[in-house]
Amino acid sequence: MADFKFEPMRSLIYVDCAKEDYRPKLQRWLYKTHVPDSIGQFEPYVTKYAFYPSFPMPPQGERFGYARMQLTEHHWLVSDLDPRLGIKAIAETFPMDVLVWQGNLPASVLEADHGQMESDGDVGNEARQTAVEGANPFIFCFLPMWWEEDIKGKGRTLEDGANYRWNVAIGYPEGVSKEEGDKWLYEEVLPIFQNAPECTRILASDVKKDINGCVMDKVLELWFENQSGWYKVAVEGTKDLKKPAWAQQDQFPFLKPYHNICSACVADFTMSNNLVNYHGYIPMR
């Protein structure tokens, strides 16, 4: 790989579960099929591949584009989008049903197609790159390997207590420049969280949009002790925020859920650090 560009970076995928009836199917596919498929593809150039299960959706979480399944994290050494990585001995198994379970396709698409799309292997990867009317886009954010901005809570350690980590990806609406959006974010929104004792940590990075054309502009993490602390600041503490002219919904965060904002609340640690902990799909006796 000497001629590949060494480009350490991190990526986050916000995995929703469109309804609870889909959860057993989605979880089975993720652990039985997707994990070994993925490891077999990218093990030589990925140093971390982890699933962080979402904490239960907090009250009013839907307006924040809450991903009810998990946050998927990769640490890359080279870009996964390099065309030379496109030749695969065995294609990834990605049935279109998965996109329905995740809310990236409406069930009516498969019903109209009579399931024919399911047999096309990597067609799922192609479909998830395009937003479909009536469904939510597949949000796949590439970021620098390390956080770019340390806004609040520098020096916090694991011994300082449990962390309810609210990971948020935001994309400013069409017609709103990143400069204008960032001005709103840093001058009107973040001071509320910075001044709230319930919020213990704030970190931020710009999305590397050149990697895959991601619609999001920025990823932040805002930490709390628990769900109640999150609600007090994110919901109650933002009630008096002025609605911007470009607002896509009437309440904060004013962005279109699952399109211009996706988020998940997760813990520091997961047993689903797949390159280290995955030992196959071993069922309960």
UniProtKB/TrEMBL annotation:
- Assigned keywords, A-Z: Hydrolase
Chalcone isomerase N-terminal domain spans which residues? 6-106
Stored Pfam families: Chalcone_N (PF18232)
Any one GO molecular function term: hydrolase activity
Name of the protein this chain belongs to: Acetyl-CoA hydrolase
